UniProtKB/TrEMBL annotation:
<dbReference type="Pfam" id="PF02653">
    <property type="entry name" value="BPD_transp_2"/>
</dbReference>
<keyword id="KW-1133">Transmembrane helix</keyword>
<feature type="transmembrane region" description="Helical">
    <location>
        <begin position="139"/>
        <end position="159"/>
    </location>
</feature>
<keyword id="KW-0997">Cell inner membrane</keyword>
<keyword id="KW-0812">Transmembrane</keyword>
<protein>
    <recommendedName>
        <fullName>Xylose transport system permease protein XylH</fullName>
    </recommendedName>
</protein>
<keyword id="KW-0813">Transport</keyword>
<feature type="region of interest" description="Disordered">
    <location>
        <begin position="1"/>
        <end position="23"/>
    </location>
</feature>
<dbReference type="InterPro" id="IPR001851">
    <property type="entry name" value="ABC_transp_permease"/>
</dbReference>
<feature type="transmembrane region" description="Helical">
    <location>
        <begin position="351"/>
        <end position="381"/>
    </location>
</feature>
<comment type="function">
    <text>Part of the binding-protein-dependent transport system for D-xylose. Probably responsible for the translocation of the substrate across the membrane.</text>
</comment>
<feature type="transmembrane region" description="Helical">
    <location>
        <begin position="264"/>
        <end position="282"/>
    </location>
</feature>
<keyword id="KW-0762">Sugar transport</keyword>
<feature type="transmembrane region" description="Helical">
    <location>
        <begin position="40"/>
        <end position="63"/>
    </location>
</feature>
<keyword id="KW-1003">Cell membrane</keyword>
<feature type="transmembrane region" description="Helical">
    <location>
        <begin position="199"/>
        <end position="217"/>
    </location>
</feature>
<feature type="transmembrane region" description="Helical">
    <location>
        <begin position="75"/>
        <end position="95"/>
    </location>
</feature>
Length: 421
């Protein structure tokens, strides 16, 4: 049997007889874990928080119905977090996403309820409206050169005002069933009254398909990296990480499709899955994604290398506007109501999700998966504290402390890296 190799030097390290790893193996594992402490720490934090609240709530957190509720209740924040982390990686911030989500929700409400448009046409027009809003803000940031903080702060006020004007300071309700399904519906709900519903097997089938695709992509990616000689992680960590991801998929499949009280797959979970996969590919494997990291890491150097940073900024805000519109439609459909106060503080939750998920304050660092993980941490905190009966004032205090500690952890890691360098 060949000896494992040191990922930093390629030299072989051999365990002593008896199968126990030697000091060199511990040093290799330890140095690797230290280099990945921020990424690993986010997932460990999520697991610890889930286990903590599972115990504190007497096992109510990980029931089938509550897991589905966590997904549905936080879906719009997770959608916003995907776009927000891209904006933050490029060195910007967007304070207007909550108001944009409310505005698009109000506009689609007028289209569907008052004007009688088909629900699908209203959703399409709403997404286009979000893109137009993003282009408006991107123009001021990329072309005029006004800092994104100021532009989006103004946008927060502008689109909150437009929301109130559109609604006339009243609520619009009810929405068609098809519109509401995007925010709170489940796949094939008509099958669920039966005790042995085929929808359970559909959910299990989707879970197994997701598992196969996940394992295939992980193995294929590692094979390509090894072939090119750019593999940056040892085999033991690859299998640990992949096994953990597979276990999460199996657990979620069981809770949504087999466990007592399961209602099947939320439609918004399918939407989230598509968004996470698509944007992860964009950020990791496309030139546009690499340029976002380059602009956030060093804008001046990116400009000198020929990257059109203004175009990147413009497209990022168009994308953020579209995702804010989608989040607004999901939220409106879930509540079955479009109101003047919708989307309040959404931007803060999305920003918190991105930073807790590992995005750097200075830009240039962050991942879509990390932002989703950060959003889930916030969602589990909210849900767990609500199950325990913790008042909202204490919930806000605890969430604020979590955000502060996450950013402090990022700053500490950067200082430590500079001192070691």
């Amino acid at each position: 049997m060949s000896s494992p190799s040191d990922p930093s030097t390629g030299a072989a390290t051999r365990a002593p007889q008896g199968g126990a790893p030697g000091p060199s193996a511990f040093r290799t594992a330890g140095s690797f874990l230290v280099s990945r402490v921020q990424q690993i720490g986010i997932f460990i934090a999520l697991v610890v928080i889930v286990l903590l609240f599972q115990g504190l709530t007497g096992g109510r957190l990980l029931t089938a119905g509550n897991v589905a509720n966590i997904i549905v209740q936080n879906s719009y924040i997770l959608i916003l977090a995907i776009g927000m982390v891209m904006v933050i990686i490029a060195g910007h911030i967007d304070l207007s996403v909550g108001s944009v989500a409310a505005f698009v929700g109000a506009a689609t409400g007028v289209m569907v309820v008052q004007w009688g448009w088909p629900w699908w046409l209203a959703i399409v027009v709403g997404i286009v409206l979000g893109a137009v809003v993003g282009a408006w803000q991107g123009f001021w940031v990329a072309v005029v050169g006004i800092p994104a903080f100021i532009v989006t702060l103004a946008g927060m006020l502008i689109f909150r005002g437009l929301t109130q004007i559109t609604l006339g300071n009243t609520q619009i309700t009810p929405f068609p069933t098809e519109y509401r399904q995007l925010g709170g519906g489940y796949l094939f709900p008509e099958l669920f009254p039966a005790s042995t519903s085929p929808a359970e097997w559909i959910t299990v089938g989707l879970g197994l398909l997701t598992l196969v695709l996940f394992l295939g992509s992980q193995l294929r990616g590692r094979g390509k990296r090894i072939k090119l000689g750019v593999e940056g992680e040892p085999a033991w960590w690859f299998w640990t990480r992949t096994g953990f991801g597979a276990l999460l998929i199996v657990l979620l499949t069981y809770l949504l499709g087999i466990a007592e009280g399961s209602r099947g797959t939320p439609i918004v979970l399918i939407v989230l899955g598509i968004l996470v996969v698509t944007y992860s590919i964009v950020m990791q494997r496309t030139r546009f994604g690499r340029h976002i990291y380059a602009v956030g890491g060093n804008r001046h150097a990116a400009d000198l290398s020929g990257i059109r940073s203004k175009r990147i900024d413009f497209m990022l805000f168009v994308n953020m506007g579209m995702l804010a519109a989608l989040a607004g439609i999901v939220f409106t459909g879930r509540l079955n109501s479009a109101g003047p106060g919708a989307g309040n503080l959404f931007e803060l939750d999305a920003i918190a999700a991105a930073f807790i998920g590992g995005a750097a304050v200075q830009g240039g660092i962050g991942t879509v998966v990390g932002a989703i993980t950060g959003g889930l941490i916030m969602g589990v905190l909210n849900n767990g504290m609500s199950l325990m009966g913790v008042s909202t004032d204490y919930q806000q205090f605890i969430k604020g402390m979590v955000l502060l500690l996450a950013v402090a952890f990022d700053v500490y890691n950067k200082r430590r890296a500079r001192s070691l360098g």
